[in-house]
Description:
Elements: H1 8-16, H2 24-27, E1 30-34, E2 37-42, E3 45-48, H3 60-68, E4 73-74, E5 79-80, E6 89-91, H4 108-123, H5 132-142, H6 154-161, H7 177-180, H8 190-194, E7 199-206, H9 219-227, E8 232-237, E9 265-274, E10 281-285, E11 297-301, H10 302-308, E12 309-319
Antiparallel strand pairs: 1-2, 2-3, 4-5, 6-9, 7-12, 8-9, 8-12, 9-10, 10-11
Amino acid sequence: MASISPDPMTAYASRLNTKRFATNKELEMYRLIGHGRHEIKVGEEFFRLDREDEHDNLDAHEKALAEMITPYWDADSNSPEMDADCGDEVDHLADQTPIKDQEDRGTCVCFASVACLEAILKRDGNETILSEQYANWLFMLMEKRNQCDDGLRTTVAASYLSTYGVCLDNVCPYEDSPTVHQHCMPGPALAIQQSATYGIGKFAIIDRIGLLGPSIANTDYLESLICKGHDVVFATNVAWGEPEDDGVLDVILDKFGNPLQSRGGHAMLIVGFNRAAARPYFILKNSWGTSVGHLGYYHLSYDYIRTYGKYGYIVYNALTNMSALPPTGGVV
């Protein structure tokens, strides 16, 4: 596995100077919808982004976990553990369940987290479609909010799903915003809650600590995680425009020559990479339907990941016997 450069900081900064400027059309892709939250227009649809505020940063406990547990990082060589048989192009597309659509709700963390569990279960011979509707209800319940709300720091989802499970999609199907707003407070029926047994066994948080080290912005490290068989639940700042001619979303610049300022957050699942491409990229499973990107998958350049990656997590194993959430009347 090749290093990004003998001097990655210098090489990265040099490449940023070669990026193109954002067009007016790309700047107009984003619109403010209130409370510091934006939507992005893709094709003819708008998709809601997560807001970015002080709660968007890892808390002290999460940072401590990320520092203490650094999976597949070789402390002796101070580099990622590398498999000799890992090539320039690796993907886990065969393990993925069908692309879904979060529609007009900001539930990307639910979709990315559930997609990770579904892929692990499929690898284990148990192809299962899980409920993002239930996941959002669970997350909002744990946050002392109701299910008409949405938005959650990506890494918090790992903690919640290692405590309580989610159910199958066919017993708690996903609803668009107008439908869910007809019943903000009532949660799933008790029988559905008791069937919510799919969750996370063991996970590890990946923080952003720079371009080097066991960091979400270190593309060598992300490659090693993929090569070890993991998908990565990935949180990113959103500041992309139109794909380049090769179909890859790359860093674009504002009028001053700086990387474009983020307009919000989004979560996706990294499922592969192509280092051999002229513009190396990671493959990410998105939740905006199949009409966008590459049949629903996005290709983000290595430099985009380095610039805008925030944090993420990997899952070692999925469980199918999680404790059901006890009936609480909406209060944990």
